[in-house]
């Protein structure tokens, strides 16, 4: 594993803010970003699955990327998700993100729907083509939603042989074991072995060697307590912080899901609408109440920042 990664720490996913009508709410989007930075995010990730990227048009992707990067103004590094099935389109998206100021791009392996997958050699060629188009790091998102198995050996091979493939967000079952295997097999080529899934596996993943956490955006201050303690070498404090925040992490990961961060930000007065875009279903009101109640017991900044 690389001794000096360019990026590490807490890089939560920025939710996309919509008005109740379904239109983009750029003013609310910028307040969301400001809150997440003030809450201690070491960096941000935009246009991910937890940003509801599947509900956003190409023109809106361009607008959001431009508006958010200009608004951040280099305060923190920003990862832009550029996933697409087509190598050419993904490369174009990635180059455009780089030109606008992205620090890194995050990409899933090529897939479409429930059945269209590509062979391992084609996945290798896909990431090689993206790498040839840019000069910033590529993070491979290894998550069940792609329906694609990426072995630790294959990920390590790409890291070793493809210039800009250097970061990995591991969200598969048994993530800690896979992180250990990846670090062992890839050595110095593995610049950033990262945790995902809203930090539900953060403690074992830190113990396995992860150096970054890509979580939900509602309480970066809470995740920082866990990660900072670990990087300070205090395992007991890490466990205490993880144990304290785990009920909320669990509520987001297993109950509230994608809309959790927006529900928390709406409850805290940061944004005026927590709406998703149809046909994505609204959060069950009882689940939302439980999420808010669980969060309030922890006094996160999300309930104080907008007051």
Tell me what the structure shows.
The chain is α/β, with parallel strands linked by helices and 307 residues long. It has a domain at 9-219: Alpha-Beta Barrel (TIM Barrel). Helix content is 45%, strand content 11%. The chain contains eleven helices and ten strands. It has helices at 26-38, 58-72, 87-100, 120-133, 152-161, 175-186, 202-208, 220-231, 235-256, 260-267, 285-296; strands at residues 9-10, 44-46, 78-81, 104-107, 111-112, 116-117, 138-142, 165-170, 192-195, 212-213. An eight-stranded parallel sheet has the order 1-10-9-8-7-4-3-2. The longest helix has 22 residues, at 235-256. The protein starts with 8 loop residues before the first strand and ends in an 11-residue tail after the last helix.
Treating each run of at least 4 consecutive H or I residues as one helix, how many helices? 11
Global morphology: globular
Category from helices, strands and their pairing: alpha/beta
- CATH architecture verdict of the domain at 9-219: Alpha-Beta Barrel
Strand order of the largest sheet: 1-10-9-8-7-4-3-2
According to CATH, the homologous superfamily of the domain at 9-219 is: Aldolase class I
Strand content: 5-15%
Order of secondary-structure elements: EHEHEHEEEHEHEHEHEHHHH
Rg over C-alpha atoms, rounded to the nearest angstrom: 18 Å
DSSP strand count: 10
Give me the CATH fold name of the domain at 9-219.
TIM Barrel
**Text of the CATH class of the domain at 9-219:** Alpha Beta
- How much helix, percentage-wise, in residues? 40-55%
Termini separation (Å)? 43 Å
Mean pLDDT: 97
Low-confidence stretches: none
Q: How is the biggest beta sheet arranged?
A: 8 strands, parallel
